[in-house]
Amino acid sequence: MIKDLTHANNQKVKAALAEARDHGDVTWVKPLLEAYAGRQEDALREEMRDLLSTMKISSAEQVFADALVDSAYGHIKSDVLSFLWNCGFTCDGRLARVAEVASEGDFQQALEGATLIEQVESVVDEKDLLEAQVLVGEALQDNDRSGIHPFLEAMRLHLAALHDGMQ
């Protein structure tokens, strides 16, 4: 059934999505993400987006985090950040990765990354936090990223507050 997520026949895709919704586990997450990445915008892609945004499988966080650094998903990084946020994942130990992706992207990617970072209430991994602060600070110095500076500044302030909370 999983392989039908990318089938040319939309009825098979629809059946696979129903199966994923009813019985999906972590084995469905990456194939669903791959199908989403490869599909043109339509009602079935929207259904995939809805499924990916409501994953209640804790191990899905790792699949999404890996997708952020996989070039095959470069065109949907803002969506992946959104999936992480919508699923309630906090990206503990992955703040630097989120900050980097948010800082390198367009307006939507920066918005999604800032939203995800701003939901973090506490941090355990100080090295990850410091790396995120450096990445955001460097991005703020880049005039080519002036269009996303408000999001970068919001991330900088929140990351600084998280660091202060560790002291």
Break the fold down into its secondary structure elements and pairings.
Layout: H1 10-23, H2 26-38, H3 43-53, H4 60-68, H5 77-86, H6 95-104, H7 107-118, H8 126-141, H9 149-166
Brief sketch in words of this structure:
This protein is mainly alpha-helical and 167 residues long. The chain is built from 9 helices and no strands. α4 packs antiparallel against α5 (77-86), α6 packs antiparallel against α7 (107-118) and α8 packs antiparallel against α9.
3D architecture notes:
The chain has nine helices and no strands. The chain has a domain at about 90-165. Helices cover about 70% and strands about 0% of the residues.
Indicate the percent of residues in helices.
55-70%
- How large is the radius of gyration? 17 Å
Distance between the termini: 50 Å
Strand residues, percent:
under 5%
Question: What can be said about the biggest beta sheet?
Answer: none
The global form is elongated
Structural class by secondary-structure content: mainly alpha
SSE string, helices as H and strands as E: HHHHHHHHH
Low-confidence stretches: none
Q: What do the pLDDT scores average to?
A: 95
Regarding quaternary structure, how should these chains be classified?
A: single chain
